[in-house]
Amino acid sequence: MSSASGSRRLPCFGEYFSLDDILTTNERVPCKIEITIPKLGSLNMSSKEEDLKPGAKLDLPLWLAAPLLNRRIVSAEVPKVYRETYREILSAEAVAVDLCRLQPQYYNFGLLLQKLPLPDVEFINNSLIEAFKNRFRHIMDCAQGSIKEDLMDLTVRLDVSERTLFALGREALEDHQRWQRRQSHRIATAAMVTNHRKRKRAALTDSV
């Protein structure tokens, strides 16, 4: 296996202690074995061979697929949710797509895939940008209460990054509402003080 080692540098995949990065790098990449790997035939459920033979197809977690790709032990394809069919669906009906069901780490995983030598990987970046732009306004409008939609129904369709944005939007709305209540209280207090002073001046005038 060491003879298959290449000179390419292994890409860095996020922060070691980040739970989001751990979950993202555990997402699967469709791979094809390119060399014989002794004693690992049991990994291929469709074969009874003792060794893992060239041509065998396995879905490997990104953290494992990356070094094997780097050493040319496997080749890989773009996961189906980033392929042309799904890119077209996202382009046409971005808001309606259930990203959580398709790929809960859609944006994070897509960004990491671009570091790998995969066919058509160059199309992923534009797809991520377009999907984000087309969905962002709707997510923020719902978070701010501008659109009347069942928030539970919305959030279950969001990927991890979008849920974070939605939560930040709700937090900003609540902060603004608290600020408005404080301002209203201050205005009401100021009005009471002004009225009290007017009454006091009127009372003094009457006494004179």
Primary descriptors:
208 residues; Methane Monooxygenase Hydroxylase, Chain G, domain 1; 3-stranded antiparallel beta sheet; 8 helices; elongated; disordered N terminus; PSF3_N; nucleus; DNA replication; DNA replication complex GINS protein PSF3
Share of helical residues: 40-55%
Order of helices and strands: HEEHEHHHHHH
* The CATH class of the largest domain: Mainly Alpha
The CATH architecture name of the largest domain reads: Up-down Bundle
- Radius of gyration, in Å, reads 28 Å
How many DSSP E strands?
3
Specify the overall morphology: elongated
Indicate how many domains the architecture comprises. 2
What characterizes the major β-sheet?
3 strands, antiparallel
Q: Please state how the strands of the largest beta sheet are arranged side by side.
A: 2-1-3
- Compute the number of helices: 8
Write the layout of secondary structure elements.
Layout: H1 19-25, E1 28-33, E2 57-61, H2 62-70, E3 74-76, H3 84-92, H4 99-102, H5 106-113, H6 122-143, H7 151-155, H8 160-207
Antiparallel strand pairs: 1-2, 1-3
Verbal overview:
This protein is mostly helical and 208 residues long. The protein folds into two domains: 28-78, no CATH class; 82-208, Methane Monooxygenase Hydroxylase, Chain G, domain 1 (Up-down Bundle), CATH 1.20.58.2050. The chain has helices at 19-25, 62-70, 84-92, 99-102, 106-113, 122-143, 151-155, 160-207; strands spanning 28-33, 57-61, 74-76. Helix 6 (122-143) runs parallel beside helix 8.
